[in-house]
Amino acid sequence: MLMLVTGDNFIQLFLGWEGVGLASYLLINFWFTRIQANKAAIKAMLINRVGDFGLALGIMGCFTIFQTVDFSTIFACASAFSEPHHYFLFCNMEFHAITVIRILVFIGAVGKSAQIGLHTWLPDAMEG
Q: Where in the sequence is the signal peptide annotated (predicted)?
């Protein structure tokens, strides 16, 4: 958790993010002899992968656009990339690059905080 909070770039943030996910799995599966606790831990890990995948794609998008993963550089350069000529092309549709990155990072946050459809593991986690 400390690495997640104090990281000054996306790589450190992602490693801390994965550490929190691992700790969550281990805490839910503390009573490993209970079958229901095992199932709940696996369910939590699988659903958290959705958020992890969204965050990883957002980090890759940031690196593609800004050529860095450092927060201070990205925040300093973000205003220059808000112009309308920075787009991702997907299935013959253009999407604004910064908006796509924001949505992907948002999906990551939603997955980790168990909200908006990705909350189904949370009641089961009380078994562990």
A: none
**Tokens describing residue 81:** 């990339």
92-114 per-position pLDDT tens digit: 777 788 888 888 989 888 888 87
Residue 5 CA, chain-centre distance (Å), reads: 14
Which of 62, 25, 29 has the alpha carbon at shortest distance from 47?
25
Spatial distance between the Cα atoms of 72 and 7, rounded to a whole number of angstroms: 12
Show the tokens assigned to 29. 């599966």
CA dihedral (6, 10, 12, 15) positive or negative: positive
Residue 34, φ and ψ in degrees, nearest 5? -85, 125
The model carries a pTM of 0.80
